[in-house]
Amino acid sequence: MWRRHLLRRLLPSPATGAAAAATPPPPFPRHLSTATAPAPAPDNSLASSLAAALGALSTTPPPATTPDAYFSLHFSDVRPTNALLAEALALSPPATSRAAADLFRFLVRRRSLHPSDGALAPIVRHLARRRDFPAVRALIQEFPTALGPATLDAYLHQLARAGRPTDAVKVFDELPEQLRNREALTLLVSSLSAEGFPSHAERAAKKVANEIFPDDNICTLLVSGYANAGKLDHALRLIGETRRGGFQPGLDAYNAVLDCVCRLCRKKDPLRMAVEAEKFLVDMEANGIPRDAGTFRVLITNLCKIRKTEDAMNLFRRMGEWGCSPDADTYLVLIRSLYQAARISEGDEMMTWMRSAGFGDKLDRKAYYGFIKILCGIERVEHAVKVFRMMKGYGHAPGVKSYSLLIEKLTKHNLGDRANALFREAVARGVSVAPGEYKIDKRYVKAKKEKKEKKRLTLPEKMRLKSKRLYKLRMSFVKKPRPRMRA
């Protein structure tokens, strides 16, 4: 015990070591104080201290002590919670995967942290995001009782995201009997289908079909996965198999297939997109699948992609015939398309309709930057500045990209005074806009008219002009021949 106290005095804490070195020692007290002990540190400072410790253990070369001894020295009085652990991992530097695993082991063994699913999930997500899958496997084998749906979802999703579908299927196959249920199979199919591996997901579902028969949700995920991957034949085949099996894929699956049809037509023959989409919509209605807002969003988005803005607007006006109302994404797509087509007033009107429909919160800083970028791309800088002011008026603070883009465009349009005013505004707001040199476009530079100076003529030039004038005068008195009448 006395060695631990001695080491604690000699070695500073990782979060307060640098601050203590820079702070001068306090003056000697003149009298004894009867104040109580200081309150414990808040959770945010404790989380930052844990993150600093993880960074210190991940440095090169690492500290001489073992991770367990290091954590015991500095965090022997920590009361760990799942929220504190997740916050510390969010604040930690990127290369702290193994140190995070050591921190979890220390908190479980020394500080009585219960190894539950909620505690293990952020550690697994942190390790898997760094592609440290051996450390994840070691943790799961060390704490098998902590494995639950949240941990499994993080593990399978990161494996699929890393391009390891076979390893994800292997993890599902190696699950204990009580965890290999429909929920785990849904997580596997969802992860593989979302990352572009629907064939692996289908094989895994068919492999365990005798134990876990696929339901409507799994079939919908498989169809959507094939459609998002651009494999229309497999998606239609799976829809037919699902119908013959007595199931009906969800509306999300049909919308994904409709989007796949439109994307393939855009790639091969954009003029046939409307015809092929109408055929699929007729097939949907024949099977009793009604259209919803997602169906119209898919159609309107693909029409805007091929610059058929008027057709998209007509479809937008007809949505009420099917009892559907546009969602926020539909409004955003139409506003971008109208601005792209230089229909500025209609785009502003659509923005007003979007706020009236209750989607004003979706008009955030990112959406406004997209509008400003489109307007600057079609050289409508004045309206881009108007949208920029509108963004500030609705309480969205512009970022570096918005200021930089507008300053560059204003300078190219030979509006240097306004560009300088915008730069000063950015500096006053604390936005770090880097000053640069921009060239003025020649189209916006007024060419100066050169004044023609009267040139003094020489005597031969004067005589030549005089003879020309006299010749014209003589020819004006010559009688011109009349045109003869034709027989």
UniProtKB/TrEMBL annotation:
Source domain of life: Eukaryota
Sequence ranges of the PPR repeats: 215-249, 292-326, 364-398
Regions of compositional bias (Low complexity) in chain numbering: 13-22
The entry's keywords: Repeat, Transit peptide
UniProt KW Transit peptide keyword: yes
Signal peptide start and end residues: none
This protein's record includes keyword Repeat: yes
Region: Disordered, residue numbers: 13-44
UniProt-listed NCBIfam families: PPR (TIGR00756)
Homology family: Belongs to the PPR family. P subfamily.
Protein's name according to its UniProt entry: Pentatricopeptide repeat-containing protein PNM1, mitochondrial
